[in-house]
Hints:
CATH class of the largest domain: Alpha Beta
Distance between the termini: 36 Å
Active site: 236
Bound molecules: S-adenosylmethionine
Binding site for S-adenosyl-L-methionine: 115-121, 139, 183
Mean pLDDT: 88
Domain SAM-dependent MTase RsmB/NOP-type: 22-305
Helix content: 25-40%
Largest sheet: 10 strands, mixed
Region (Disordered): 310-341
Number of helices: 15
CATH architecture of the largest domain: 3-Layer(aba) Sandwich
CATH superfamily of the largest domain: Vaccinia Virus protein VP39
Keywords: Cytoplasm, Methyltransferase, RNA-binding, S-adenosyl-L-methionine, Transferase
Amino acid sequence: xxxxxxxxxxxxxxxxxxxxxxxxxxxxxxxxxxxxxxxxxxxxxxxxxxxxxxxxxxxxxxxxxxxxxxxxxxxxxxxxxxxxxxxxxxxxxxxxxxxxxxxxxxxxxxxxxxxxxxxxxxxxxxxxxxxxxxxxxxxxxxxxxxxxxxxxxxxxxxxxxxxxxxxxxxxxxxxxxxxxxxxxxxxxxxxxxxxxxxxxxxxxxxxxxxxxxxxxxxxxxxxxxxxxxxxxxxxxxxxxxxxxxxxxxxxxxxxxxxxxxxxxxxxxxxxxxxxxxxxxxxxxxxxxxxxxxxxxxxxxxxxxxxxxxxxxxxxxxxxxxxxxxxxxxxxxxxxxxxxxxxxxxxxxxxxxxxxxxxxxxxxxxxxxxxxxxxxxxxxxxxxxxxxxxxxxxxxxxxxxxxxxxxxxxxxxxxxxxxxxxxxxxxxxxxxxxxxxxxxxxxxxxxxxxxxxxxxxxxxxxxxxxxxxxxxxxxxxxxxxxxx
Length: 483
Ligand SMILES: C[S@@+](CC[C@H](N)C(=O)[O-])C[C@H]1O[C@@H](n2cnc3c(N)ncnc32)[C@H](O)[C@@H]1O
């Protein structure tokens, strides 16, 4: 492929004798990857059914650094199947899979993914916490945040979704998170092979402009970290200005300390010589496409000292609010407890659905929708644009409570609903929005299931099953893997 001349002039001296190999990697086809999240790939996980043979046929061996990541054929149709729509897997560039491993989130932790759309890393972080953490996935862009919310719902990932600038969040949530991921907007040099458009859009000035923006985002991020918390920084660019030099800047200006990342197979240490020579930079990691099957990537993890005080970070620039009209934030109000009247009905309903005492259910109602969430509990949300406080579970329609799609994808409590097993063809018709026959004489809300995956709900009436698959999710022409 044709690389920009200025990019070649910059990379040649950085790579030295490795340049010919690096250049030759652009003639190889980029590898596609898939993260299997719903089916077990591990023998020690009895709760998850094994990967379907039909899906396995499209996998081409494991991504060496990701236990549940696989390569897939270039021509693979996995993304157009009912398994994809039901959240069994997430199609993700293989090197990007390492980032959630660097976050290393633990159940119970509070984690912020600050630049989260379309959700590749957020969905992996939720999975690594077994959906038992408090994940907030934020995206500044108003259209991309909707895609983020949909992907989180599809993957059944427990997370709140916000649509804010890092500066506005930093003002609202000082010293609040155990871990923060900044998967930064960058000059994208690592993506040229996969996305030739990125090469055409690149300019010599892009890295410096991106580095300035990255610093702004990081100044906000550091304020939101708890003392002892970790900041994970990643880019998909080769440029030292946006990688090692940003990490050195974080040590010097933000008082963070670089930590050693695991030695993922085929990844290389970061390059101290790309910045000021400090040895600590070799604790960061780079993926070079001539050394591993994946696109160019950089990952670093830094720790905020236990002794850090909130005041020490208050004077950093970058805490500007993006929108006026957010000035009336005050002390803040929390989402996270039941409010309003008529809570008892849904509390009983959910307690029955989840077979737990009703006082164990802490779920906010926004308008008519009930969410399963305490992701935002304890965080001030006045003036913060919250797209979703958690997983949408049910909608109150008058006296009725209707299950929502998120409940199906979040791991359905099967004992509560009748289950209608579908073969793959019927599942394809269901996801296209067709009504299905009711030969079993079912009544009421029914969970539709295929291959151990809950696909969504329907409402059974005499003679047929009315399709409740959400209109915006319906897809014509999904492809069968069994033919
Ligand atoms: C590399 S992408 C994130 C990819 C995502 N983490 C994933 O794994 O799917 C960077 C994101 O940062 C967002 N962004 C752009 N400018 C930003 C800014 N000034 N502050 C915060 N986020 C920004 C972009 O809209 C984009 O969604």
